[in-house]
Design brief:
With 344 residues, this protein is α/β, with parallel strands linked by helices. The chain has 2 domains: 4-124 and 299-315, 3-Layer(aba) Sandwich (Rossmann fold); 126-294 and 326-338, 2-Layer Sandwich (Dihydrodipicolinate Reductase, domain 2), CATH 3.30.360.10. It contains 10 helices and 14 strands. The strands form 2 sheets. The protein has an 8-stranded mixed sheet with strand order 8-9-10-7-11-12-13-14. A 6-stranded parallel sheet has the order 3-2-1-4-5-6, with helices on both faces. The structure holds nicotinamide-adenine-dinucleotide (NAD).
Length: 344
Amino acid sequence: MKKLRIGVIGVGGIATGRHIPAFQQFTDQAEITAVSDVNVHRAEDVAKQFQIPLFFSDYKEMFEEIDAVIICTPNKFHAEITVDALEAAVHVLCEKPMALTASECERMAAAQKDSGKKLAIGYHYRFMKESQAAKKVMLTDEIGTPLVIRAKGLRRRKVPGWGVFTNKELQGGGSLIDYGCHLIDLALWLIGNPKHTEVSGSSYNALSKIPNQVNLWGDYDHQKFNVDDHVTAYMKFENGASLLFETSWATNIRDDEEHLSISGVNGGINVFPFELYTTRYNMLFNSAPIWIPGEEDPGILQAKNFINACLGEEELIVKPEEAMQVSQIIDAIYKSSDKVTVVE
Ligand SMILES: NC(=O)c1ccc[n+]([C@@H]2O[C@H](COP(=O)([O-])OP(=O)(O)OC[C@H]3O[C@@H](n4cnc5c(N)ncnc54)[C@H](O)[C@@H]3O)[C@@H](O)[C@H]2O)c1
């Protein structure tokens, strides 16, 4: 069988920390043959470190050498590079969020349809063992129609001090578009991506603008901090379900918290840690598995799914329309939040 030749664009933290090591495990099916970065010295160093034959500064020159590409640049470049790759008949795995805005996502989805190539988005929370287990349960009648979903991703004092995470122009926002997007994506996927009918939200950037903050994830310039560090939202869906949402990079709470739970008409489910809440024999049951199948590193399953989808052997788990819905909701939260006046 011919191996899938893969390239990587933007070889910073996520490319070298997750994607390259994960994809290099599938030596029978795929091979990373090239990398590209605007910082060509970085491309060269990474190629050397991971024994990748080719490196480029211009990603377009790489397309002739590959069948698929992983896009790991700042968010601003996701749409343009994805469209270029699909037009060059190259499959794409693009990091999350899909793009800066939903209208950019629409361009990407249209390019995918025209090309007939695969387009996956790096919402890797779906590949966690607990998420895969939750999806299995949600496909049965155990929980029943979902009524209320609670999704939370909170960090106490962890504004990312490296890279460009606090640069609004390059990233499009802060805690919501960077971190909260994972929890929204996972919640929507578990309930079958019903259409959203109402979204309202509030975003804050008060705390991280104050000088000399305690921050556990490095230094950032508080004077230039112009993205959200805390967001709340409420969403309604056409099936009647509602989602209560909160995310933060830096808030005053006891501990960091990741929470996703769904209460349905028949039962309830908690994803982290995985638990089921049911009624049987006129009793209330809480059950937790003592073993869950799957990989500890969700990057492995993500890589496997993308390779198999490109080879025509499996369906993609993260589809472009689903990732686009997350971006539509993010747009709506930011828009709704713009209308909120914070009284000083
Ligand atoms: N799935 C996750 O949980 C997760 C985690 C971290 C980052 N990410 C996403 O991955 C992307 C990259 O994040 P990172 O932490 O690796 O950032 P990073 O700053 O460590 O790396 C980005 C790399 O892209 C290069 N680059 C910048 N503009 C480019 C361009 N136009 N063309 C080619 N290369 C370019 C930079 O030189 C740098 O080497 C972001 O979209 C981020 O949201 C996802």
